[in-house]
């Protein structure tokens, strides 16, 4: 374990000293669950977020609509 990792663990340990026994048990359960979550499922969820914009329109049609609806204003600078 690196020095930085050790320092982080020690810091959190000091924070947890003030917790009640029940809170510590809940924390242990939460940490255990987080260990059971596989990295691959996290990556899968990340990649599932791509393409989340759903539309039946073609990309060209969407681009045309965006460009058509642009509004520019001119402002005089003093």
Task: Walk me through the structure.
The mean pLDDT is 85. This protein has 78 residues and is an all-alpha fold. The chain contains four helices and no strands. 64% of the residues lie in helices and 0% in strands. The longest helix is centred in the middle third of the chain and has 16 residues. The protein has a domain of 36 residues.
Write the layout of secondary structure elements.
Blueprint: H1 3-16, H2 21-36, H3 39-48, H4 59-68
> What's the order of the H and E elements?
HHHH
Percent helix: 55-70%
Provide a count of the helices: 4
Q: List the quaternary state of the chains.
A: single chain
Question: What is the average per-residue confidence, as pLDDT, rounded to a whole number?
Answer: 85
Short description:
Helices cover 64% and strands 0% of the residues. It is mainly α and 78 residues long.
